[in-house]
Here is the input.
Amino acid sequence: MKTTEDFKTYYAVIFTSTLKTNAEGYHEMAEKMEALAKLQPGFLGIDSARNSVGITICYWESIDAIIKWKQQSEYLTAQEKGKTDWHSLYNVKICKVEREYSLSALQ
Amino acid sequence: MKTTEDFKTYYAVIFTSTLKTNAEGYHEMAEKMEALAKLQPGFLGIDSARNSVGITICYWESIDAIIKWKQQSEYLTAQEKGKTDWHSLYNVKICKVEREYSLSALQ
Here is the structure.
């Protein structure tokens, strides 16, 4: 296990959601939002998985980078669409990542 | 969108992983670990989804609660097993949840 001693805190936006049974167009918009995030200053990465609940976590250098990303009109548009059309439940958490451990190994 | 003004910070442990192709026994141990976490003081909830990457996030009242949970021998056993047998890649992030927004609606 590797622990980085000079660890620099960064931020995670955790988005969890449950889709309505009729969620046409959701996946196209999710891909568009991911592509947009990757273009923003301060973007560090993204993790995403979906079963009955969907989890997307994107990582940012700072709260300021998150605010600028949120201000992007396409993101706001997608969020509004999400509230009205796609999700029966969603939750957004803004978190400061304080410690991290990782392992990578050959298969 | 609901924002809780008297929001009390809490903690999230983000666990992301990629399983090896031969990961026999993983799901049984994952269920056992989830059941164990739910019994611990300070446990607040869990979100989990898996596609090509698996994401599990568990939420805790404090860092102290996370440390006590980690000290549980079954958790440590599972982690060791995970490092050697199941995962080709895994990462653990300890985060402070600073802000939260949510929406719930009828289907």
